[in-house]
Write a structure and sequence with these properties.
The protein is an alpha/beta fold. It has 2 domains: 138 residues, Rossmann fold, CATH 3.40.50; 146 residues, 3-Layer(aba) Sandwich (Rossmann fold), CATH 3.40.50.2300. 43% of the residues lie in helices and 16% in strands. Helix 2 packs across helix 10 and helix 3 crosses helix 4. About 5% of the residues have low confidence.
Length: 330
């Protein structure tokens, strides 16, 4: 259809004026940004991150559509964490999720006192000074704790039930990691009631593993409690190989260790903690304040027994322990 010259001019002018408005209407709204600060020392960090994303999807968040994730990985170098945390703050992000326990969370706390921080995993956040209390963490930090009431004592109890001859337990701990020092103290407190003696086994660097195992063996250790944490996670296969060489039963809190040869593991599911971390992110993005969100302790624990290891050690696991097991590795 033809138009007059004046009509064409008016139509063209209106089209030009409306075009920017239409373009603006089609632009997506600002997407919240989630910072991911990973110490990078865990061997299973990739599947755990995937579990966190699954948790977000279950809550209706799809990366790139509903939020953006700025992922920074220290790749096992703790000295990089402060700089990476500062980068996240400068972006800025709406919430920071920390992994690996104390070092990443502490770096984030040093970088910001206002941006909410969610701990995907923390051993004892109160004992290590990350939060004021579990019920009211205060400040800008909240999240998940892997420590349940008397969890270390329960591990020692299960070890004693599985291997009644055990009397001296070496507690392997990484002294630079405050959470493992706390676990040592808890083991020392629980041991007497079980008729056990604790032998502290301090390891600061991987080069010390061999000497320390030889030392505690010479002191009469007949089992090892692996206190956990990122350091043990990075070197758990070597730890378990040395324990096997010295014919020492091992007890730990991580399922993956039992799959690698630890006699028994008892603890919460780390994957479940990362899934729950997504729920904390959801609440914060909807306006909740970290100070008002209690730090969550695990409600369910799982016992995994490795019968291959028991057989190699010449142990017969009593039926009462087998009955309690959630999984038995044949």
């Amino acid at each position: 259809m033809r138009c007059s010259t004046l009509g064409c001019i008016v139509t063209l002018t209106l089209s030009m004026l409306m075009a920017p408005l239409a373009a603006t209407a089609q632009q997506p709204a600002h997407l919240p940004t989630v910072g991911w600060l990973d110490e990078g020392i865990r061997a299973d960090k990739v599947p755990l991150y995937a579990t966190f994303l699954e948790g977000l999807r279950e809550l209706g968040y799809v990366e790139g559509q509903h939020l953006v994730i700025a992922r920074h990985d220290a790749e096992g170098h703790r000295d990089r964490l402060p700089g990476l945390a500062a980068k996240l703050v400068r972006l800025p992000v709406d919430v920071i999720v920390t992994t690996g326990g104390v070092p990443a969370t502490h770096a984030a706390m040093q970088a910001t006192t206002t941006i909410p921080i969610v701990m995907a995993e923390a051993g004892d956040p109160v004992g290590t000074g990350l939060v004021a209390s579990l019920a009211r963490p205060g400040a800008n930090v909240t999240g998940l704790s892997g420590m349940g009431p008397d969890l270390v004592g329960k591990r020692l109890q299960l070890l004693k039930e599985a291997a009644p001859m055990v009397a001296r337990v070496a507690v392997l701990y990484h002294s630079p990691a405050a959470a493992t020092v706390v676990m040592l103290r808890e083991a020392q407190a629980a041991a007497p009631a079980l008729g056990l003696t604790v032998l502290p086994m301090e390891v600061r660097t991987p080069d010390e593993f061999g000497d320390q195992f030889a030392t505690v063996r010479s002191l009469g250790a007949d089992a090892v409690l692996i206190s956990g944490g990122p350091f043990a996670a990075a070197h758990h296969r070597r730890i378990l190989d040395l324990a096997a060489t010295h014919q020492l039963p091992t007890v730990c809190g991580v399922r993956a260790y039992a799959e690698s040869g630890c006699l028994l593991s008892y603890g919460t599911s780390v994957a479940a903690m990362y899934r729950r971390a997504a729920a904390y992110v959801d609440k914060i993005l909807k306006g909740a304040k970290p100070a008002d969100l209690p730090v969550e302790q695990p409600m369910k624990f799982e016992l995994v027994l490795n019968l291959k290891t028991a057989q190699a050690l010449g142990l017969t696991i009593p039926p009462i322990v087998l009955f309690q097991a959630d999984e038995v590795i044949q």
